[in-house]
Specification:
Blueprint (H helix, E strand, L loop, with lengths): L13 E5 L27 H12 L5 E5 L9 H9 L6 E6 L4 H11 L3 E5 L5 H8 L4 H14 L5 E6 L4 H15 L2 E6 L16 H11 L3 E3 L9 E6 L4 E5 L12 E4 L4 E3 L8 E2 L1 H5 L5 H13 L19 H4 L2
Parallel strand pairs: 1-2, 1-10, 2-3, 3-4, 4-5, 5-6, 6-9
Antiparallel strand pairs: 7-8, 8-9, 10-11, 11-12
Helix pairs in contact: 1-2, 2-3, 3-5, 6-7
The structure holds S-adenosylmethionine and iron/sulfur cluster.
The site of S-adenosylmethionine (SAM) has 20 residues, from strand 3, strand 5 and helix 10.
Length: 328
């Protein structure tokens, strides 16, 4: 099988699909308050996304993550999960959600074949939740997490962006909450991809988070089965339970990156921070579709991938799209 290998030898088997750019929160680190969202007719249909996945699977893609914007705003998302789960070669489907609409959808998503679930939650304090996301919604997220547990998901990951001025208050309570409820907490270093002015001093680095958790929660040690190629550095408490840190700024995982991305309107991107993208939608909307051309586009896009995101160098250029419009 021809594989999606780039000029640095990285094999790409992981496709992140944004199903919508809309969101029911307005997290300051991700998007501006006022946004013009895409017209619904611009979004890829479930059939078009599934078709793209089918072609990508012939090039070795086996992992899919659905994201957005807020993916649960896309009506009947479980149907998309069912369609993708049936694609030959796809072995792993994940979803990243803010959890607001999860309580009503968790069971249908699980029944459709979804198994990996990441719920974003930066704080357990309703005031800070509002400050960070410009909306209320903490009780709904907590209800969503409970419903997901009842539906059979496990381990559910809880993603928290580590921003100085906020996470100092929230790291320990979040870690305790996750330990008590059997969720796996993952901190994500704050990246320059949102609408806010990003400053390096706002990034809370992995070693600081670890120190706070060791003092405030319990001793941690590197996880026994830690995979150095994985984006997250995983740690274990002596008495069970894990914490991950995705140190995209202080310890970029570009060298082992296996990800490509499809935006909600069908733009193919080879990096979260890519400045160029190619439009697959015309090919997906052709009748009959030209699968050879889609395959060629995928191969060329991966070939053009750069070595790394350069956040830590003077060469870094922030993409024009903010996170919600790319797909996190
Ligand atoms: N709306 C869903 C959610 O919030 O989980 C899915 C999309 S969101 C863009 C995906 C992930 O990106 C979330 O976990 C969010 O916290 C993270 N994210 C957004 N902006 C970020 C930033 N500037 N730095 C680090 N992570 C960010
Ligand atoms: Fe919406 Fe997720 Fe971005 Fe927050 S991080 S604004 S929930 S897309």
């Amino acid at each position: 099988m021809t594989a999606l290998v780039d000029t640095f030898g990285r094999i790409h088997n992981n496709l992140r699909i944004s199903v919508t750019d809309r969101c029911n929160l307005r997290c300051t680190y991700c998007m501006p308050e006022n946004v013009t969202f895409l017209d619904k007719s611009a979004l890829l249909s479930f059939e078009e996304m599934t078709h793209f996945v089918t072609v990508a699977a012939t090039l070795g893609v086996n992992k899919i993550r659905l994201t957005g914007g807020e993916p649960l705003l896309r009506r009947n998302l479980s149907e998309l999960v069912r369609l993708i789960a049936a694609v030959p070669g796809i072995t792993d489907i994940g979803l990243t959600t803010n959890g607001l609409l999860l309580a009503n959808q968790a069971e249908a998503l699980f029944d459709a074949g979804l198994r990996r679930l990441n719920v974003s939650l930066d704080t357990l304090d309703a005031g800070r939740f509002f400050e960070l996301s410009r909306r209320d919604g903490l009780p709904q997220v907590l209800a969503g997490l409970e419903a997901a547990k009842r539906a059979g998901f496990g381990p559910i990951k809880v993603n928290a962006v580590a921003i100085r001025g906020f996470i100092e208050h929230d790291a320990v309570p979040l870690a305790q909450f996750c330990r008590e409820n059997g969720f796996e907490l993952r901190f994500i270093e704050y990246m320059p991809i949102g609408a806010d002015v990003w400053e390096r001093v706002k990034v809370v680095f992995a070693h600081e988070l670890l120190e706070w958790l060791e003092v405030g929660v319990a001793p941690l040690a590197p996880a026994a089965n830690y995979d150095p190629r994985s984006p997250a550095m995983d740690f274990e408490y002596a008495d069970g339970g894990r914490v991950g840190i995705i140190a995209s700024v202080s310890r970029p995982f570009c060298r082992s990156c296996n990800r490509i991305r499809l935006t909600a309107e069908g733009k193919l991107r080879n990096c979260l921070f890519a400045l160029d993208e190619v439009d697959v939608k015309p090919l997906l909307r052709m009748n009959p579709t030209d699968d050879a051309a889609i395959r060629a586009m995928l191969l060329a896009n991966v070939q053009a991938k750069w070595e790394g995101h350069e956040i830590n160098s003077a060469k870094f250029v922030k993409p024009l799209r903010t996170m919600h419009a790319i797909g996190g």
